[in-house]
Design goal:
- This protein has 119 residues and is mainly β.
- The chain has no helices and eleven strands.
- The chain has strands at residues 2-7, 10-13, 18-26, 29-39, 46-51, 57-59, 67-71, 77-82, 91-101, 104-109, 113-118.
- A hairpin with a 5-residue loop joins β7 (67-71) and β8 (77-82).
Length: 119
C-alpha cells in the first residue's frame, strides 16, 4: 500500500505562483512515473504534467512554459512549481503515481488539493 500526501494548494492572484508537493509513503515500494492531474468543475480530469524516474517530463500544452514538474533524489516526492497562474488554472489538483509494491505495479491517487486563482 502506497499513500500519496499532497500539500501546497491554496488561493493566489492571477500571475502568482504556488508550489505543490506530493510525498509517497509506505513499505517496500518504488514509484516510477509520477505526475499531476487536475479537474475543474464540470470538466474531466486531465493530465497536467508527469515525470519518470529518469527525469523525462511531459506537459499539457496549456501549462508549458509556466509549470515545472520535478522529483526529489529519493524519487518519493514529486513537485509542481506553478508560475504565472491564470484563473483557468483553478481546479482540484491530484497527485498520481505508478508504484511497485509486493511485486505488483499499481496506480495511486492523492485526495487532491484545491488551487484557486483569482482575477
Amino acid at each position: 500500500q502506497v499513500q500519496l500526501v499532497e500539500s501546497g494548494g491554496g488561493l493566489v492572484q492571477a500571475g502568482g505562483s504556488l508550489r505543490l508537493s506530493c510525498a509517497a509513503s509506505g513499505s517496500g515500494f518504488s514509484c516510477n512515473t509520477m505526475g499531476w492531474y487536475r479537474q475543474a468543475p464540470g470538466k474531466q480530469r486531465e493530465l497536467v504534467a508527469a515525470i519518470t524516474r529518469g527525469g523525462t517530463t511531459n506537459y499539457a500544452d496549456f501549462v508549458k512554459g509556466r509549470f515545472t514538474i520535478s522529483r526529489d533524489n529519493a524519487n518519493t516526492t514529486v513537485y509542481l512549481q506553478m508560475n504565472n497562474l491564470k484563473p483557468e488554472d483553478t481546479a482540484v489538483y491530484y497527485c498520481n503515481a505508478d508504484c511497485w509494491t509486493r511485486a505488483r505495479m499499481r496506480n495511486y491517487w492523492g485526495q487532491g488539493t484545491q488551487v484557486t486563482v483569482s482575477s
